[in-house]
Amino acid sequence: MGHSHSPHSDEPPSPAALAARRRANLLLTWILVPLGLLAVIGMVLLWPSGDRTGITVSDPYATADGVTFETGKVQRVSEENCPSSQALVNAGGTAQQCLVAYTVPNSGGSTIQVEVPPEVAKGGAIEAGDTIRYLNLEAIMAQGGGAPPYVFVDFVRSIPMAALTVLYAGVVIAVARWRGLRALVGLAGAYAVLAGFILPGLVEGKPPLLLGLIGSSVIMFGVLYFAHGFTARTSTALLGTLFGLSITACLAAWATDAAHLVGVDDENAYTLINSSDNISVSGIILCGLIISGLGVLNDVTITQSSAVWEMYELAPGASAKRLFSGAMRVGRDHIASTVYTIAFAYAGAALPVLILVSLYDRPFLDSITSGELAEEVIRTLVGSVGLVVAIPVTTAIAVLVVKAVGIKGIPHGTDATHDDGGTLPAHATPDAGGTPSSPADDAPPTRRSLRNRS
Known about the structure:
Elements: H1 15-46, E1 68-81, H2 86-90, E2 97-105, E3 112-116, H3 118-122, E4 131-136, H4 138-144, E5 150-155, H5 158-203, H6 208-228, H7 232-258, H8 267-275, H9 281-292, H10 294-314, H11 320-349, H12 351-359, H13 364-368, H14 371-405, H15 439-442, H16 447-452
Parallel strand pairs: 3-5
Antiparallel strand pairs: 1-2, 1-4, 2-3, 4-5
Helix pairs in contact: 1-6, 1-7, 1-14, 5-6, 6-7, 6-9, 7-9, 7-10, 7-14, 9-14, 10-11, 10-14, 11-14
Pfam family, one: YibE_F
InterPro entries: YibE_F
Keywords: Membrane, Transmembrane, Transmembrane helix
């Protein structure tokens, strides 16, 4: 979910402005309610059954009889003979060297020796004080007469992740207060739709384009209204978001097929392909392309909608052309910053792949269009196109709505400025309450003033 830069005046809106907002809400309701009903009906029709018959996925954490996963705290680490080499030593061989973590089991008992794999030991990631998860092979090795080895599996990250979660929630609520809390609850609802509808639907072979479009629409309806309230600004932003989402979905469907994104370079894709005949990796990629740009798309549409409404309530007599051009100046700045945001976000996520590809002795064009990077590049391009298109569309919708509902006392289409951009005298344009206002109050706000009100 994206962050909002909604500009709001410190002064409460006038009764005329409030009436205009109510009329705008009524107008937008007639448009958005049918779209919301279509999304709900589509979700009901595509709701997954939950039947996983025929799906076979080997669980990497499944164990044989007598083998268990346990946790413990590392006391010290040492480079020495591997405990599992004891049988080889007894037979007259030479013991292998490995990193051994002396660990006290959380379940109680004496200190044990946990063997650490070379790839973990090489990075120096494990040290005294760490809590680790290890494989207990004592029962199997005891039957074979060998030494009881314990093998490192993973780190236990519960405490640092919980601490970061609490810190994140605390900062959001402290700064954004009630709206921040609602945004966090909305985010939880979005993940519920993702986990309960989209993911199981992909597993069962439901149409990925419809899953992504319907699921994303339901998420946006819930997140936007829950976080920002049932306002005309939010409804306008939602309409622009749904348009941008539709463009993104159509473009993603074309790009997935035209660029042959089949996920053959991903080990996880092979696992999914072999697990069921219903799972389509290209369909999963298509759905991912649609979902990936939701947060930034929400961000820019909310900003554009709020910019138009703020400008109009400051200068109700401004023409539609002037409102649109003023808000688009804000939008162009936002386009530049959010395009970088998308590109860098994906680059950061794919950093190991980028480093690996850069080490290959291949031409740049071959590398950037290879299976390892093509998906990330197309994800960036598709998301950016949907984002850029949504900004002028949302701005135009907001302008049409504010001019349609109007603020009583201001003639529609009357501009408070001369053609050369200068303001009329103070007596020429009344404010929303019908009283004379100063030229500074009549003029549409500049980008600096909008930012100061953010």
